[in-house]
Amino acid sequence: MPTLSIIIGSTRPGRAGLPIATWFAERARSHGGFDVAVADLAKIDLPMMDEPKHPRLGEYAHQHTKDWSAQVAAADAFVFVTPEYNYGYTAPLKNAIDYLHAEWKHKPVGFVSYGGVAAGTRAVQQLKQVVTTLSMLPLFEAVSIPFHPQFIEDGVVQANDVMQDAATAMLDELVRVEAVARELRG
């Protein structure tokens, strides 16, 4: 079974990304299309890019980069859980993406975004520009959660039908695209 890595893009204390990612991971496990792993950038704690050589060379000097490389290389598909900060995505997520190069290639990526009225969609639009440069395959289907605090009660997401249906549509598409992309990865 292919592996889906859910990457939590927010590292801020009290972040909504953790309960949202927890909900989505449970939803992905019940979907049954993937083995599911969660990568929490707050726990991984990558320093700001500290590798002396360009990531496309794959010649990593630091153990934290080698560990991150192995984790990303082992995944067949990704979901980035991202807030929107000032019309964009988070610096820790950009840093985590930029640490690597070939490990991302020809892998599909979906997005679970959250925020205010725009539901994190402006952050996702910026992320799509970045991931296509790495030859990732961003999906159209997404989970976009507007005014997200209304869906979190005692640290647990209370997803509505729209969120559940969007998650199913995105997971279904991730399964289809991953199967085709696997041939590209050879």
TrEMBL record:
Residues 4-147 form the NADPH-dependent FMN reductase-like domain. It comes from the Bacteria. SUPFAM superfamilies: Flavoproteins (SSF52218). One of its GO terms (molecular function) is oxidoreductase activity. One of its GO terms (cellular component) is cytosol. It holds the Pfam family FMN_red. This is NADPH-dependent FMN reductase-like domain-containing protein.
